[in-house]
Amino acid sequence: MNDKKKKPQKLKARLPRGFVDRSAADIRAVDGMVAKIREVYERYGFDPVETPLFEYTDALGKFLPDSDRPNEGVFSLKDDDDQWMSLRYDLTAPLARHVAENFNEIQLPYRTFRAGWVFRNEKPGPGRFRQFMQFDADTVGAAGVQADAEMCMMMADTMEALGLKGQFVVRVNNRKVFDGVLDGIGLAGDDNAGRRLTVLRAIDKLDKFGLDGVKLLLGEGRKDESGDFTKGAGLGSDQIASVLAYLAQDGYEPTSDLYTQGMSELDQIEALVRAAGYAEDRIKIDPSVIRGLEYYTGPVFEAELTFPVTNEKGESVVFGSVGGGGRYDGLVSRFMGQPVPATGFSIGVSRLMTALKNLGKLGDDEVLAPVVVCVMDRDVEALGRYQRFTQTLRHAGIRAEMYQGNKKNFGDQLKYADRRSAPLAIIQGGDERAQGLVQIKDLIEGKRLSGEIEDNAAWREARVAQVSVPEAELVDKVREMLDAQRQDRDRAAG
């Protein structure tokens, strides 16, 4: 019998499906994007607000599937008082709760924006994540369509602020128009709410699956390439024909007061945006815009990028939607027992960043790697001196770090600095310390010269890209050398 104890199995490091680790470059790119978006929103007079990641599940709205454990579409857990809480599905429903809870203190119209993570408990796939960032702007308390028109104009201005002029269009429709179509095919009333939502979500996939795919989703359902089946709305052939005729814009117009009212509002929006100088190439009325969420009650809009990209099948397709929104007059009212008009839109930050990467428009605001202060001696006095150099550089606004590794070999420290892409290395050994000097090694220039020098004698003679200065002149010389490197980069880019 073997009495040896089994070694405990090592914990496997696994990233959960549908989630990603974000790199420094991605984080900085998103920060830069968000700053530009925020600048536009601020210019329109909107102010920031922030809501928590969790909400009580019932506050997220009836558009979420009902279940004994309400985690279809959202991630949910039970609180210690036996109430269901869910990670927020979007940023709009939490805002509605916030407005209702603080209604007496809020100045209407309430114009706010916020960026944050949202979570979807859905099947992950290529480009489809369970956690992603949105950036929303909303106006609560303004009933007129001028508020919706302003949202469309702000969305257009945001796209242009991100360098996408001429490569996007904001498409606008009205949910009342399509609700009029649904009324005309017998899907009016609360009894048909579930089927209406299925129809809305089917049409929202028009740009992804085309008319044929939507037709399947309006009928019995659609099987994707992986074999997964999505149940359809179960409409009859005449009902499907009416919906497709509306989408094809072949002159189909139902005799519905709701349809007429919706078209009138679209005419007003179009007049307002045209008067403000936004032509059809920037803001366009488009009956195929539906939006998949049930809470929209009026105008709906999407920002679509129009440049081509190659999809997973190698086909050339337009990039598509990077954000959208609309009027949701019933969402705040659920908490209030009185009508509270609201409109807003949401930008998919992660998707928009992918688009800007495709176009090479993330900018060249690359953060310079830190200057590395090498550690030549390891007694407390020496370490304190190296730390003083590092802090002096930092307090002068220069990014710097003191070498913290275990390697005592100077060459290994330079290899570390090279892997960090450090522009400069600061060196002070015993000889320099005795003279009150410090060596500054230009690692960028040194790398260039190393390709031109062929023997050790020439290398020693060149003292490759290294200068010696008094300690008191360290900051000024580092700045001078960093500026020279920046000018070299600019010349190479130009």
TrEMBL record:
Name of this chain's protein: Histidine--tRNA ligase
One GO location term (cellular component): cytoplasm
Cited CDD domains: HisRS-like_core, HisRS_anticodon
Reaction equation(s) it catalyzes: tRNA(His) + L-histidine + ATP = L-histidyl-tRNA(His) + AMP + diphosphate + H(+)
Organism name: Rhizobium quercicola
Domain Aminoacyl-transfer RNA synthetases class-II family profile: 33-370
Predominant subcellular localization, coarse grouping: cytoplasm
Family from the record: Belongs to the class-II aminoacyl-tRNA synthetase family.
Pfam families documented for this protein: HGTP_anticodon, tRNA-synt_His
EC number per UniProt: 6.1.1.21
SUPFAM superfamilies noted in UniProt: Class II aaRS ABD-related (SSF52954), Class II aaRS and biotin synthetases (SSF55681)
Subcellular location: Cytoplasm
